[in-house]
């Protein structure tokens, strides 16, 4: 870091924004295999939060790779850079007073922990969307598992690339043989128990 660049503390801070918006700001980080249901659950949860008047923003892996993270692939280094950029963007949004929902495979513990470390204690909520690989592969909505099995896609998480499951996620969802509504209700209850939502 250049020592001539000094942090400027502005007058409107996070507490003031939370008071204006009427709720706390935090980052809900959804991690799990491709096809586990991250986008579906994050999207349904965002709808419910929005309905309650919560100011939200949903960052989705497939979408940010069209802009902020354009050109990055799926090597370990590219995933790390992808998640570093997303983590910094999410941090700004949380500072702006939003409840940010981020849905990324984010297969490496170190990358997820690096994002956790960017935020104040309690403002990073890791949500492990735990769906068996066989189920994800059966869902295969984009046909990517089929391509990965055929060797047409390399470094595919769960096939020829690792997925390091969270050890102590704040929320552990089993998203198999359950309705999306049931799962959303479970996440909301966990957030209320942590006093992140009223
Ligand atoms: N090799 C490989 N491994 C995993 N996923 C792949 C790969 N190639 C393409 N895709 C598609 O890209 C989506 C994952 O992007 P992410 O930005 O979430 O990945 S990561 O967090 O940087 O690991 C992922 O989206 P989801 O299915 O929504 O998880 C896939 O559709
Ligand atoms: N609880 C669930 N039960 C059955 N199918 C689900 C459930 N949650 C998500 N799905 C389906 O699984 C597929 C993958 O979901 P998606 O949200 O795209 O996963 P991801 O974002 O993790 O890749 C979609 O076809 C979605 O409709």
Keywords:
Rossmann fold; five-stranded parallel beta sheet; 14% strand; globular; single chain; 198 residues; alpha/beta; binds adenosine-5'-diphosphate; binds 3'-phosphate-adenosine-5'-phosphate sulfate
Would you write up a description of this structure?
This protein has 198 residues and is an alpha/beta fold. The protein has one domain: Rossmann fold (3-Layer(aba) Sandwich). Helix content is 42%, strand content 14%. The protein has a five-stranded parallel β-sheet, sandwiched between helices. The relative contact order is 0.20. The structure holds 3'-phosphate-adenosine-5'-phosphate sulfate (PPS) and adenosine-5'-diphosphate.
Short description:
This protein has a single domain, classed as Rossmann fold (3-Layer(aba) Sandwich), CATH 3.40.50. The chain contains eight helices and five strands, in the order αβαβααβαβααβα.
Count of domains: 1
Top CATH class: Alpha Beta
Specify the overall morphology: globular
N-to-C CA distance = 39 Å
What is bound: which ligands? 3'-phosphate-adenosine-5'-phosphate sulfate, adenosine-5'-diphosphate
- Order of the strands making up the biggest sheet: 2-3-1-4-5
Strand content: 5-15%
Q: Look at the helices and sheets and give the structural class.
A: alpha/beta
Give the arrangement of secondary structure elements.
Layout: H1 14-21, E1 26-31, H2 38-51, E2 56-60, H3 61-64, H4 76-95, E3 99-103, H5 109-118, E4 124-130, H6 133-139, H7 144-149, E5 171-174, H8 180-193
Parallel strand pairs: 1-3, 1-4, 2-3, 4-5
Bound molecules: 3'-phosphate-adenosine-5'-phosphate sulfate and adenosine-5'-diphosphate.
């Amino acid at each position: 870091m250049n020592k001539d660049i000094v942090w400027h503390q502005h007058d409107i801070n996070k507490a003031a924004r939370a008071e204006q918006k009427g709720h706390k700001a935090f980052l809900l980080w959804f991690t799990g295999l491709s096809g586990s249901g991250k986008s579906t659950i994050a999207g349904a949860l965002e709808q419910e939060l929005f309905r309650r008047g919560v100011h939200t923003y949903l960052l989705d892996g497939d979408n940010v790779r069209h802009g902020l993270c354009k050109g990055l692939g799926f090597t370990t280094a590219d995933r790390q850079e992808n998640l570093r950029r997303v983590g910094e963007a999410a941090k700004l949004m949380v500072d702006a007073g939003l409840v940010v929902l981020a849905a990324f495979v984010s297969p490496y513990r170190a990358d997820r922990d690096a994002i956790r470390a960017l935020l104040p204690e309690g403002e990073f909520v890791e949500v492990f969307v735990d769906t068996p690989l066989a189920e994800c592969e059966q869902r295969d909505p984009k046909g990517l598992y089929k391509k990965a099995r055929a060797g047409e896609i390399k470094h595919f998480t769960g096939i020829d690339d690792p997925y390091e499951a969270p050890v102590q996620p704040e929320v552990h969802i089993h998203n198999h043989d359950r309705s999306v509504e049931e799962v959303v209700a479970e996440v909301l209850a966990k957030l209320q128990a942590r006093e992140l939502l009223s």
